[in-house]
Amino acid sequence: xxxxxxxxxxxxxxIAARQRLLHVTARLRTDSPTKFTNILAGTNxxxxxxxxxxxxxxxxxxxxxxxxxxLFLEGKAFxxxxxxxxxxxxxxxxxxxxxxxxxxxxPKPELLLFGTGRRLVLPPPSIRQHLNKxxxxxxxxxxxNACSTYNLLAEEGRRVAAALLPPNAHHWKQD
Length: 175
Fold this sequence. Notes:
The protein has three helices and eleven strands, in the order E-E-E-E-E-E-E-E-H-E-H-E-H-E. It is globular. The protein is α+β, with helices and mostly antiparallel strands. A five-stranded mixed beta sheet has the order 8-7-11-9-10, sandwiched between helices. The relative contact order is 0.18. The longest helix has 13 residues.
């Protein structure tokens, strides 16, 4: 049974539940939206941050939308030329050459987050072995979770990279 207790000297409300008081702060009513500030971050804010992932693609904080495969490396976003995605056979046509950028990157990222699209699709052993051979620790997950994890680790100042396949198959046209 819950009872509502109003503290006369404070705008706060306490709720008593079975002899245990829970403190609830009164809601702040304002016309302007709340802007969250990362109090742990220093002055160096990561250059590439993801706002959301939709069927359109990956929406960045700066307003850009990346509709096709991309890489986040050293705080920058790059378009990534990879084999065309198919829902059932995501890894068909992938070769070691698609990961050459990580062979020449110095310093190597501590962790590569690989977003495989709308859902997690684990790569064949040959791809995992190649990535391990070039010195990368890789976590495979769906693209939405890869973006979320990337934001968190980048804000912490970690040397993290992301290789992202869009939720819906879309490819860049080469001219």
